[in-house]
Amino acid sequence: MFCSIIGHPLKNPRSIKIWKKFFKKKKFRIKMLALDIKKADFKEQIKNLLKNKNFLASAITMPYKKNIIKYVKINDKISNFANSINLIVKKKNVLYGYNTDVYGALESVKNLNNKKIIIYGFGGTGEAIYKTFSNIYKKAEFIVISSKTKLKLINKTKLKKKIEEIDISSVDLFINCSPLGSDLKKKFLTKSPLNIAQLKKMKKNSTVFDIVYSPKKTMLSQNCKKLKIKYINGIKMNTIQAERALSILEKEIKKY
Fold it and tell me: Does residue 184 carry a pLDDT above 80?
C-alpha cells in the first residue's frame, strides 16, 4: 500500500517526513511517495490512482487544490466552505476530499466574532481561509487585500488593493496568506506583507497569523518579536492540519 503528496513543482514537502514518521510509529507498512505531476498529466494520473488497488490517500498541494474537486466527494462543512481540497482518501473506490489546511488555521486562531480581520493575499489558501472564516464568524468584519478585481466576497467584506488603504490601528487579526517571507522564491525571503512602521501602528492586543512555515524566522516574525506583537507562524497550522489528515487516514487504514 502507498500514500502520496501531489503537486507541481514539489520542493521538499513537509508532509512526507510527517507521514513517514507516523507510519513508522504506528507500524503501518505503507510507503509515502512524492508525485510531481504536470498539469497536462493531472487528470490521467488521478484516474490511475483511483484504479490502483494499493493507493490509500494523498496530500494535495499547489496548484491542484481546486482542480481535484471535480474528482472527489465532499462530506464535511469546512471543506464545503473552503471550496478547496488538500487531502484525498480512497474509500470503496471513491475519492473523498477534505481541507485540513483550513482546519489547522481555525485551530490556530479562535473566537473571532466581533473582530476586524485582514486577509492579505487571495491565492488558493487565502481564498479557502477567507470563505471558511467568513461563513463561521459571521459577526466579524473582513477586509481582503488583493490586486484581483473580481472576487466573490461574502456579506459586507471590503476589498482593498493595498495595505496602505486601511487603518491598520483598528485591526484585531492580520492573516498573511501571501508567499511573502517564504523560501518558495529567493525574492520572497527579504519581503514582508507589513513593514515595521505599519506594525508599530497595530494595537497591543492584536495578532499576526502567518501561514508561512519555511523558513521558521521571517522578516515579519522578527519585527513582531521586536515590537512584542503576538505572532503565530504557519508551523502550528501545518502541524495541526497534518495531524488532522493522519487522524482521518488512520481510521481508514484500520478497516483494511
Answer: yes
